[in-house]
Amino acid sequence: MNYHRHFVLVSAALICLGIASKSTGEILFEETFDSQPDFTSTMHTTSQPQFANLGAVIPDGWYGLYQSTWWSPEKGLPFKHASMEILASNIEKTRNGTGKAMVNWRESYVTGGGYAFNSDSQLIKYLGQEYDELYVEFWIAFSPNWWQRTVGNEANWQSKIFRVGSWSQSGDIESGINGDIGPLYLWDYKKDAYGVRNFFSVRGGPWGANYAFPSGSYTSEQSLNYTSSTKGMAVGGGDPQVLDQVSGGFLANFGGATSHDQVFGAAGHWTKMGFHVKKNSAIGAADGTLSVFINDERIVHRTNIPWVEDNGTGVHPGWNYFAIGGNDYFAPFPNKDQFEDWYSIDDIVVRSDLPTDLSTGVKLGYEPMPPGNLEVK
Angle at Cα 324 formed by Cα 263 and Cα 104, nearest 5°? Predict the structure, then answer.
């Protein structure tokens, strides 16, 4: 493993108290996957929607999943993989080399209708109540054969990896377009001729009424880079100190198109992602917030999002669900090749506020080690 945790001495008082981060909110949910029974998205059924309240067997503590798998053992291909796995046999795909992780397999596939978002691995957590704000963090690593690791992506292939939103508690929680979701933030992995992109979509609320911010008050889709787009985004207005995992230095100072390894590291490297959303203070107010963190460095900070606009009902919903994984717009190889690659998710934490060390920029816990090709003397 190229990425290690190490503790930083902040003060004798903090060490004595064992404090890593102090916040006024609470931890709502944690998942390491270590205690989960072995599970895959096609182990018990090959149905696409699978929800516990409808009798489906799903991972403990989760609400449901939505999957689409073309090749898996349950479909007669014993050496292929379901779109999502939580297996003891995947120990080499875990963050700490022990226990389990959520491994999401991406299939290169074109349906009869042409290119589309196909393989799907969306694991969904409904939180049971609405919150004014949510913070979600997890660690992610990518397979050695991750297609965009070495290949330029002129075709704009992308994968939906994370979403957080508000669900009406009726209809489809897994679908972002059927009117039961909103507001919504959706983070995608994407690489194109401009390098690896920080691509995201935002949808208005309540629950589909202002899906694409029809008032023109906000841009619904944004494709940012991990370099110049991050300038000024750190807490306090400086540049984030996100390490270039290939060349050293900071990505904010890099002038070209970034490779996968520059942002997410070589095979075996784990990256910490964090996402904070806070609803606007009133219906129609352009003061909702969105912040994105990579290895505890803030790279996106928006304070002008009208998350909920007027729809005549007076409803101003809060955040009540998130999901890991999603469908993939991915077909660089013909179907006959049955090409698969994967990304792995571990150590999910969900809070009702932003941890103090992230809101102040003062690191009270661990810090990322330099890239493996740097020698520190």
Answer: 75
What 3-state DSSP class applies to 196? strand
pLDDT at 25: 82
Indicate the burial class of 255 (C-beta count within 10 angstroms; 0-12, 13-18, 19 or more).
exposed
Pairwise CA distance, residues 118 & 340, whole Å: 13
Question: What's residue 31's pLDDT?
Answer: 99
pTM, two decimals, is 0.89
User: Any residues with CB less than 8 A from the CB of 289 and at least 6 apart, and which?
Assistant: 133, 276, 277, 278, 301, 302, 303, 305
Tens-place pLDDT, residues 158-209: 999 999 999 999 888 988 677 799 999 999 999 998 999 999 999 999 997 8
Asked if residues 322 and 184 have their Cβ atoms less than 8 Å apart, the reply is no
| Cβ within 8 Å of residue 372, ≥6 positions away | 2, 266
CATH of the structural domain 12-360, one choice from 2.60.120.200, 3.40.50.10400, 3.40.50.970, 3.40.1350.10 = 2.60.120.200
Q: Which residues contact 327 (CB under 8 A, 6 or more apart)?
A: 68, 117, 118, 119, 120, 121, 122, 159, 160
CA distance 47 to 56: 10
Residue 172 CA, chain-centre distance (Å), reads: 20
The one-character DSSP state at 112 is T
List the chain domain ranges.
12-360
Q: Give the CA distances from residue 131 to residues 127, 128, 172, 352, in Å, rounded to whole numbers and listed in that order.
A: 9, 10, 20, 7
| Contact (Cβ atoms closer than 8 angstroms) between residue 82 and residue 34 | no
Provide the pLDDT for residue 206: 94
Provide the pLDDT for residue 17: 32
Which segments of 57-119 are extended strands (E)?
Answer: 64-68, 84-86, 102-107
The pLDDT value given to residue 113: 64
Residues of the chain below pLDDT 50: 1-23, 365-377
| CB 328, CB 111: distance < 8 Å | no
* Alpha carbon distance 88, 85 (integer Å): 10
